[in-house]
Amino acid sequence: HFIDTDRQRGVQTVSTVLIDLYWQTGIVISRKIAAAEWGDGVVDQSAAHITRTHPGLRRFTRRTLLRMRQFHDLYREAADAVVLVRQLPWTQTGSS
């Protein structure tokens, strides 16, 4: 039983850290886009930079960076919602 409980806590911790990472990335991308001139390619350049500097990361493509920005922009006025999202259980533990 403790294995399932600890496993669930580990999954929850990882989910919380990822949500924070995506939120912070969304903030950076949103600010860069706001400060950029039209056609600067901020998102493409950011994705290329992350790929170059962190080759093991796979979820930082142009598409996902835009989603992280969208996540931030959608909830920035309700930052408390992000705190609540971090607390959601993302998986269910099975009884084995």
Describe the protein's architecture and organization:
This protein is mainly alpha-helical and 96 residues long. The protein has helices spanning 2-35, 42-53, 62-75, 79-86. The longest helix is centred in the first third of the chain and has 34 residues, at 2-35. The protein is flat, with a radius of gyration of 16 Å. The model is unreliable at 91-96 (pLDDT under 50).
Tally of individual helices: 4
Output the radius of gyration: 16 Å
Fraction of helical residues: over 70%
Low confidence ranges: 91-96
In total, the number of strands is 0
Largest sheet, in brief, is: none
Q: How would the global form be characterised?
A: flat
Portion of residues in beta strands equals under 5%
Mean pLDDT: 83
Secondary-structure-derived class: mainly alpha
| N- and C-termini, Cα separation | 9 Å
Order of helices and strands: HHHH
